[in-house]
Amino acid sequence: MAFRKLLTGWVVAGTTCLVSVAHAAPLAESAARGATAAANANAQAAQSRDTARAALAGGPLGNANVPRIALDDAYLPAVRADLNEQVIRVPVDASGDVTLETTIYRPDGPGPFPMVVFNHGKIPGDPRLQTRSDPLSFAREFVRRGYVVVAPNRQGFADSGGTYQQDGCDVASNGLGQASDVAATVAYMSKQSYVDPNQIVVAGTSHGGLATMAYGTEAAKGVRALINFSGGLRQDACTGWQGNLTQAFGAYGGKARVASLWLYGDNDSVWSRDLVTKMFAAYEGAQGGEDRPAAVAKLVDFGSYKNDAHRLVGDRDGVKIWWPTVEAFLASAGLPTAVQYRVNTPAAPHGTGYASIDSVGAVPFLDQAGRDGYRNFLKQYSSRAFAVSDSGAWSWAEGGDNPMNVAISNCEKHSSDPCRLYAVNETVVWNDDTAATTAQNGANGGKDAAPAATASTDNNAADNSHSLASR
């Protein structure tokens, strides 16, 4: 698809534009159970949709009292903790010379399943240094509901082939270029036997949100919905970048073919509320025409999220904020939302009573720098973990999908011996008699097959946004 040919009249400036989007410091189941199970799942889905719609009707989601998602799913078939993760290469074109490093998460069975393509964001600096996109918190909710989740790294990112094209200050052209890789991924995956090519969702965060909306200008026939999490491209080195970005969304809106849901927060470190309002107004205002009906677009302000709304989709804590809105949107598009599989989330070890959480002096093996690090850990949001080794190495992690895994992994990068969890959330889990391997299994939710988490930002908040500090 020649996405770049869709827009004309854009001036490409020769200046290389900088992107400032990071907000955190990196370190880094059976058919035999059939009728009863289906009835239970459908009833549960209907109740959940009613709750979601009520939340939408009540004002900004960020100001609503959203209940925690309760999934009575013990009767359902189980999916492995790693969501059957597989990394493949997706060809950009027929030649196969350039391929995209792509992560797939899927339910058990032959399918066909509906599919979600998730598009990552962009951290500052060299995109080659960006880690493979692995949106576990996002993927878990969709696999739980019977979807295949596909997360491609676009050209020039991580281990994908090709080169990232900035397109100077022409943000509209940049988005269309990124959309070409989204199109290649949708086309390739739609041919797989386990994918239903008539039930496709395309979603993205930050720069991936921009790519998602650009893709909507020439989306494949089977694409039923677009989800934009805090999408855009910030180019501080470009004069008038806010206007460029607003115009780009206006151009995409004029050619939009698919309904879209936009989710933005009040305390986003990248986009101001005023800019978000202008971007959406430009997109919505350009909708429809004599030869094309309007593609419905809805903007939801979910309020403030932790220290930065831009990190929402990369945080497991964020699911309870965005899923009710997304569920209602998918249902309105005729897409499935009933829970069909049991998927476990990472489980924290039990508290040991070794010490109180705020007793800095009780943490073993730390020097003064380590004690200062633990004090910093205590200031973080409650989804957090602190790890330490016998040799005094330490690390803390907050947010993302599994801060326990991240804390241990980064601690061991600086240690000659194994690291163990000392504290998780509000509880000390340290036990002098606990083997390091037990602590590692605890960090993996008790599943040996679970892959190690990595730390990255922007969503990228996607893409696992973590605040980290490590010795």
From TrEMBL:
Protein name: Prolyl oligopeptidase family serine peptidase
Region (Disordered): 437-471
Natural source organism: Paraburkholderia acidisoli
Keyword tags: Hydrolase, Signal
Signal peptide per UniProt: 1-24
Compositionally biased spans, kind Low complexity: 437-465
Domain Xaa-Pro dipeptidyl-peptidase-like: 98-233
InterPro entries registered for this protein in UniProt: AB_hydrolase_fold, FrsA_esterase, Xaa-Pro-like_dom
Coiled coil: none
Keyword tRNA processing on entry: no
Domain of life according to the entry: Bacteria
Pfam families linked: Peptidase_S15 (PF02129)
GO molecular function: carboxylic ester hydrolase activity
The UniProt record lists the keyword RNA-binding: no
